[in-house]
Amino acid sequence: MDIKSEIDANVWKIEVAAGDRIEKDQTLLILESMKMEIPVTAPRAGIIRAILTQEGANVVEDEVLITLDVE
Amino acid sequence: MTWTPEIEQLQQMRRLRKRMGGAEGIARQHKQGRLTVRERLDLLVDGASFQEVGTSVGAAKYDADGRLQSFRPGAYVAGEARVDGRAVLIEGGDFTIRGGASDGTISHQRVDMARLAGELRLPFIRLLDGAGGSVRNYDPEAKAADAALPGEHPVGDESPLATFAATGTPGSFDLPRMRDVSQIAPMVENHLLTQMAHGNLLAQVPVVAAVLGSVAGLPAVHVGESHFSVMTKNSETFVGGPPMVSQALGIEITKQDLGDWRMQAKTSGVVHNVAEDEADAFAQIRRFLSYLPANVWQLPPWIEPTDDPNRRDESLLSIIPRRRAASYDVRQLVAAVVDRDSTFEISALFGRAIVTMLARMDGFPVAVVANDCRREGGAMTPSACIKYERFIDLADTFHLPVVYFADVPGFMVGPASEAGGIIRFANRAAAAAREASVPFISIVTRRMYGVAGVTAKRDGISVRYAWPSAESGSLVAQGGVMAAFKREIEAAPDPKARQQEIEDRFIRMASILRQPGIANPLEIIDPRDTRPAVIDYIRKTHAVNATRLGPKLRVGMRP
Predict the structure, then answer these.
(1) How far is residue B280's CA from residue B343's CA, in Å, rounded to a whole number?
(2) Contacting residues of B for A34, CB less than 8 Å apart
(3) Interface test with B, best of A6, A34, A60 (most B CBs within 10 A)
(4) In which residue ranges of chain B is pLDDT below 50?
(5) 3-state DSSP assignment of residue B215
(6) Chains A, B: CB pairs < 8 Å
């Protein structure tokens, strides 16, 4: 499952790594836009397959940030 | 001599009408994942409540003795029905007949339906599927060729091509016994306002548009001429389709890129909501109408509440993070205040810096507006201003109190915002708030900066409360300090440190507890007391709101 950015933003902090098992609603990374931190949370529980961005990167709306293997 | 032969012919037409564009046209419609107009009616209205009018409109052929030989129904179905027990008028295009083109229909039929909605003061629902007029209408040769297209049904096989809930025509229903109507309190009507609203359906009754296919031309105009519009993901709408765009502009574009939900519900905001499928679209229409009165001469429908008016949600005490850069989920905040499960979000994909929802407070319909700090920092962008203006107008028109959760850092700055006309749309948003005469309750939850504070109305019947987390000023410190203290900061030995120092001072000063005069709340309240406080204000102002029924007077022009 692709986890996408819903906004244009900077990636401020990534809180998970590939291979991590994560719970539903867990914060995966935090975006920053207009001096506001916006958490991106897991829509489902699963295992992180890959992180496709890095801290400090600019991302655009609909860009895939993380791929998740849903359990 | 009776009129039985004519009545029999009328019955034949009614039966043939239900064959729509014929098996082929119906199959084509289904193959595209779309329903026929009659299946749509079945999904939308209560049981067999549809009373069709104009059933003899179409192209009929007769033999030498004047007997009906064949009938091609017009690509238009209209009538009255009940939705959740309430009367509405509905019209729908029939795409199975010549792509829903307006030929074969009688244009005054459409005008009549809109006129009836105004006269009967009933909500009007348009199920749009079709491209309006065709240039083929003006060419006798093309018209003759079209006459050979499927959809002409010979008399004989008159069985419907699908099963529909039984429908009737006016007078074919058994009426319940009339109860004593002398008890209905007459409302004194302001005839001047009624006269001014004449011909303007949007000033009188709820108008809903559903985009359920390829909708262009006049039907596309109807999409915008509504209080609420919804489109399915496999439909499109535009003033002119790809062939026209190609010819006029030399641009090759698919109909999806030109006018599907991404364009119309997200980029342009013309369409309010997106539906997963047609059943979802109809559920949304029913939900939307459930908050509104049948017309502006009535109050919104109150329902017996199931939620406690004194519920004080503990989550509100900590929902605003103390750290200024941390954000929160504004939909959770709203849900904690309004009646449980009572929200219906409108225009969620457009102007996302604000959230607009219909909801209930102690059973009474309200219009909820909230800044979303997770989108554009909650700043009022041009699209957020447009969304705000339309939504406040909707609330005012149908007498819904406005509940506004304000967390607004200001109007959006930057080239995109200026190019989008922020100065003008900000003015229009402010004008909508000023003109509104419904109860207007603002709760400043966090930031209230700059001129954008006008969105939290403070005249008419309005009240402004603030939470202890509220802060205010003319500009958010981060932006404002550098502008106002430029010389002092640059002259300092450590400019960065000096800037930080001044900013910290401003942030402390901005707290509502230190300067309640800035955001001017009537009272700073415990966030948990918000629900009872808002309900109390709605109850107190209800009598005033109820004296303002009828069309709303708007004088002059908006900026």
Answers:
(1) 16
(2) 376-379, 409
(3) A34
(4) none
(5) strand
(6) 25
